[in-house]
């Protein structure tokens, strides 16, 4: 059965490649966003991942904002895209992934090389420009995936883009659970695990629930990027039931 499911996933990926190559060049931004959202939703369905959107923000709709979330798995991007298609900032390693890296690039992912301050500055300037153009930008301030049950420190650098663009920060908490509400270990994508290993493990599961929890947005008025990162970390940690120790990365 997992092999049959893998074939269906591969066929869906192939369809995505064709869409990016033949449809995207002639599509409006709104049409692209609709296609990305639909493709992401179907991919998760083929992996038997059910997305549950939980709104704890106190409002039904939000104004334009910089979106941040904790990072658990490669599935996070598709879970968020199934809600609203976003342009993600992701580590440059993903660009080298076969097919998935190319698809991510076509969907508007912005790749950031670790430890390269010049690259950070270039990406930062691009983010400010796109936020001012009302594009939906999202990133994972932990900088890497972490095991569920823990929350890594947040890197503060890219929060500066929200301050300069004068848009609020909209935090989300992500968890993957089973039908009993317990954290689902199959979703963890950490250590030396490869993308293929993670995919095989997920396809063996009968059902995974991805909880996408929208939290109250954070105003950037009068805030420093480190304060923003700390505030975002605190609200995500609270939603995940985690402690607030070491909330900001020294980098």
Automatic annotation (TrEMBL):
Domain of life: Bacteria
An example Gene Ontology biological process: phosphatidic acid biosynthetic process
Organism in which the protein naturally occurs: Undibacterium fentianense
Keyword entries, A-Z: Acyltransferase, Lipid biosynthesis, Lipid metabolism, Transferase
Pathway in which this enzyme or protein is active: Lipid metabolism
Pfam families linked to this entry: Acyltransferase (PF01553)
SUPFAM superfamilies: Glycerol-3-phosphate (1)-acyltransferase
Annotated ranges, domain Phospholipid/glycerol acyltransferase: 65-177
Full protein name: 1-acyl-sn-glycerol-3-phosphate acyltransferase
GO molecular function: 1-acylglycerol-3-phosphate O-acyltransferase activity
């Amino acid at each position: 059965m997992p092999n049959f499911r893998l074939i269906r996933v591969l066929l869906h990926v192939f369809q995505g490649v064709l869409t990016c190559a033949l449809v995207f060049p002639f599509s409006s931004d709104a049409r692209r966003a609709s296609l990305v959202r639909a493709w992401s939703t179907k991919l998760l369905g083929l992996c038997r991942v059910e997305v549950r959107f939980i709104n704890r923000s106190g409002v039904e709709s939000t104004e334009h904002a910089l979106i941040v979330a904790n990072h658990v798995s490669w599935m996070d991007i598709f879970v968020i895209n199934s809600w609203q298609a976003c342009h993600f900032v992701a580590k440059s390693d993903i660009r080298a992934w076969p097919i998935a890296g190319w698809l991510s690039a076509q969907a508007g992912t912005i790749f950031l090389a670790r430890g390269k301050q010049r690259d950070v500055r270039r990406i930062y300037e691009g983010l400010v420009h796109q936020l001012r153009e009302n594009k939906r930008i999202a990133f994972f301030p932990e900088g890497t995936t972490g095991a569920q049950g823990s929350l890594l420190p947040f890197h503060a650098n890219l929060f500066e883009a929200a301050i300069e663009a004068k848009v609020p920060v909209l935090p989300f908490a992500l968890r993957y659970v089973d039908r009993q509400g317990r954290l689902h270990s199959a979703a963890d994508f950490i250590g030396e695990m490869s993308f293929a290993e993670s995919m095989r493990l997920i396809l063996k599961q009968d059902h995974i629930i991805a909880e996408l929890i929208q939290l109250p947005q954070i105003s950037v008025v009068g805030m420093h990027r480190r304060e923003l990162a700390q505030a975002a970390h605190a609200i995500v940690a609270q939603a995940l039931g985690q402690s607030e120790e070491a909330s900001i990365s020294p980098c």
